[in-house]
Amino acid sequence: MAPAEPSSASPPAAPGHAVRRFARLALPYWKSERRWLIAGATLAFLLLTIGQVALVMWTSYWNRAFFDALEARSLDALLHQILVFALILALTMAVTAVHMHVKRWLQLDWRRWLTANLVGQWMTHSRHYRLQFIKGEHDNPDQRIAEDIRIATEAAISLAHSLTYSLLVGWGFIAILAEVSGSAPIPGSEFQVPGYMVLLAFIYAGGGATIGYLLGRPLVRATNRLQSVEANLRFSLARARENAEAIAIAHGEGMERRSAVQLFGDVARVWDRQTLAYLGIVSFSTAYGNLMPIFPILIAAPQFIAGALTLGGLMQSAQAFERLASALSWPIDKLGEIAMWRTSAGRVVNLHHDMVKLDLIDSRGETSRIRLGHSPRPELQLRGLSLDTPAGEPLLRDLDLSVRRGERILIVGDAHVTLALFKAVAGLWPWGRGEILLPDGQEMAFLPQRPFLPTDTLRAVLCYPQPPEHYTTSELQRALECAGIGWLAPRLDETDDWNHVLPLRAQQRLSTSRLFLQRPAWVFLEDTTDAFDSTGEAHIMEMLHHEMPDMSLLSVMRHGGLEDFFHRRIELHRGSAAVAMEGTEKVSSIAAPAASSAEIGR
Questions:
Q1: Counting CB atoms within 10 angstroms of each CB, which of 10, 28, 236, 587 has the fewest?
Q2: Is the dihedral of CA 420, 426, 428, 433 positive or negative?
Q3: Up-side HSE of residue 564: CA atoms within 13 Å toward CB?
C-alpha cells in the first residue's frame, strides 16, 4: 500500500504552537514512573551547568590577575597564577566530563521514553496500517520515530543547556563588565555613562540578533523542506530494497533509477535553497564573530592609554564584553539548531496528532462505521454488513452471515470485495456500516497472501507473534512437517532474511505451519496457498482437517478446485447484496457440523 502523500507543502505551525504541542507530548517524561531518578539527573545537570559558569567567571578574574602580573614583571605572581590556572583547568575538565555524561544520559533516556510511547501508540489498534488512509502530516512515520525523535530530544536538551548557560553567563558578566569598565564621558558633555561597555554589548548583540534573524528566516523554511524531501528519498530506496526480487524479475531497475534521480533532484533543489539561505547568515556570522574580540579592545583602549585601566583590566573587560555579547547572541548562534529542532519536533507532534485524530474519527463514527464486537456464542456473525472503499464507493451491501464453530466457508467473487471482507473481519477495514461479532474468548488467526517473516531465527519466525520459548523444538519440527517443509527443521536456529532466501511457496508454507503450531480455533485465509500447485493445496487442506478437526475456516480464494473441502461456498460481487450460498459435495474425510440450510449433502 502506498504511503500517504507527503504534506510538506502545507505551512509549518507557528513556532510557539510547535513548542506548546511538543511540550504537551514530551514533558510528561519528567512525571513518569522514574521521575525521582530523572529529577535527580536534571538537578545534577543544572548544578554542573552552574559550575561551568562559575569556572568561566573564575577564569575571567584569573585572566586579569595574569596580565597584571605580566605588566608588573613579577615572576612570583606569574608562577602563582600558573598554579591557579592548573587548578581551574583540572576542575573544568572534570566538570565538563561529568556534565557531558549526565547530558547524554538525559538525552538517551528521554528519547527512549518518547520512542516507546510513540511506537506503542503507532503499533496499537492497527494505527500503523490505518494511518495510510487519512489525510495529514504523517508520511514516513518510521523516520519520524527513529530520526526526528532523536533530533528533537537531543537538540531540546542541548538548547536548554546552552540557553541556561548563556543566561547565567550574561548575568555574571554584566556585573564584571560594569565593575571593570567603569564610566565614560559623553563627548562634548560632563555627563558620565556608567557601565558604558554593558550598554554597548547590548547594542552590539541586539543589532546582530536583528540582522541575523532577518537573514535566517529563509533558512528555517529551507531546513523544514529539506528534511521532508530527504525522508521521501530514504523511503523510496528502502522500498526498492524490500522489493528487490520483484523489481529484478520485472527488470524495473531503470524506473527505480529514474525515480531515485527525480527524488534526489528535489533534494538538490532544496539543498541549493538552503545553501543560499546559509550564505547570508554565515557571511554575517563570520564578520560578527571576527569583530567581537577586537571591538571591546578598541572601545576600552582610550581608558588604558589614559591610565584608567591596567593591562589586566583591559583584557578582562574585553573578555567580559565578548562573553556577554556571546550570551546575548544565543538566538543567532543557535538559529540553525533551533530550525532543525523545530522541524523535527513538528514532525513528531504531527504524527502524534494524526494518531489522536484517527481515534477521534473512530469514536465519532465519521468514517469507521463498522462496529466490531464479540458474540457470547461460539460463532461469527455479520449483520447488515456493507463495505465501501476509503473514497466512499460501494463494494458490498447488506451482507448477513452466520458461521458456526467448525464450519468451513469458501469465499469467492470480486477480488476487491473479498479482500475488503477479510480485512474488515480482521479489524483493518473501517469503511462501511453494519456489525461484525467475533466469537468471544476463542483464538483467531489471519493469514494474508504475503506473510510477514521477520529477519530473525527461523525458530522466532515460526513462533511469531509468540516468543520462541513458548514452544518446544519437537513441536516446531512437527509443524514444519505438517506444512510440507520439514527440510527447514535443521535451520531453526539460523538467522536470515527469509522473505528473500525462500521462494513464495515456501514462505506461504512457513506461514501455514504457524497454524499447526498455534492451533487457533478460527482461521481466516486470504489466498494463502495461491503459490501452491493443486496437489500441495489439497495436502494442506487435508492436514488442517486432520490436525485440527474442530477448526473453523474461512478462506478467500480466487481460483477453484478446492470446493470439496468446504461446507459452504459464498460468492460476493461488487456493489451487490446478492450472495450465492451453494452446498458442495462433501469429501469422505470431512464431517459437516450440525445441520443448516446450506449444509453439504443436503
A1: 10
A2: positive
A3: 10
Q: Residue 342 has which C-alpha cell?
A: 523545530
Other residues' Cβ atoms within 10 Å of the Cβ of residue 255 = 12
- Three-state DSSP state, 373: strand
For residue 143, the model assigns a pLDDT of 82
- Are residues 396 and 385 in contact, defined by beta-carbon separation less than 8 angstroms? yes
**Least confident stretch, 38-42, 69-73, 241-245, 446-450:** 241-245
Question: Can you state the angle between helices 35-72 and 311-328, rounded to 10 degrees?
Answer: 150
Residues of the chain with CATH 3.40.50.300: 370-583
Report the C-alpha gap between 465 and 25 in whole angstroms.
30
- Whether residue 313 has pLDDT greater than 80: no
Alpha-carbon Rg for the chain in angstroms: 35
> Which position has the grid cell 508520511?
139
> Is 154 within 8 Å of 111 (Cβ atoms)?
yes
Q: How far apart (Å, rounded) are the C-alpha atoms in residues 522 and 566?
A: 14
Cβ-in-10-Å burial (0-12, 13-18, 19+) of 337 comes to middle
Three-state helix/strand/coil letters over 296-340 = HHHHHHHHHHCCCCCHHHHHHHHHHHHHHHHHHCHHHHCHHHHHH
Distance CA(509)–CA(532), nearest Å, equals 9
Q: Quick one: fold of 370-583?
A: Rossmann fold (3.40.50)
- pLDDT, residue 189, reads 56
Contact 524, 554 (CB under 8 A): yes
Q: Comparing 561 with 347, which gets the higher pLDDT?
A: 347
CATH 1.20.1560.10 residue window(s) in the chain: 15-364
User: And the C-alpha cell for 446?
Assistant: 489471519
Per residue in 122-157, pLDDT (tens digit) is: 888 777 777 777 776 777 788 888 888 999 999 999
Residue 10 has pLDDT above 70, yes or no: no
Match 507527503 to its residue by C-alpha cell. 6
Q: For residues 86 and 223, which has the higher predicted lDDT (pLDDT)?
A: 86
Mean pLDDT calculated for residue range 371-391: 85
Which of 266-270, 308-312, 350-354 has the highest average model confidence (pLDDT)?
A: 266-270
Terminal-residue alpha carbon distance, the chain: 43
d(CA 24, CA 35): 16
Residue 19 in contact with residue 156, Cβ under 8 Å? no
Q: Which amino acid is at 130?
A: R
Find out if CATH 1.20.1560.10 is the number for domain 15-364: yes
Q: Quickly state the pLDDT bin for 89 (edges 50, 70, 90).
A: very high
User: Residue 362's pLDDT is what?
Assistant: 61
pLDDT tens, position by position, 584-598: 433 323 333 333 323
Q: What is the pTM of this model?
A: 0.66
364 touches 245 (CB < 8 A): no
Contacts of 358 (CB under 8 A, 6+ apart): 127, 130, 131, 134
Residue 304 and residue 551: Cα distance in Å, rounded? Answer: 97
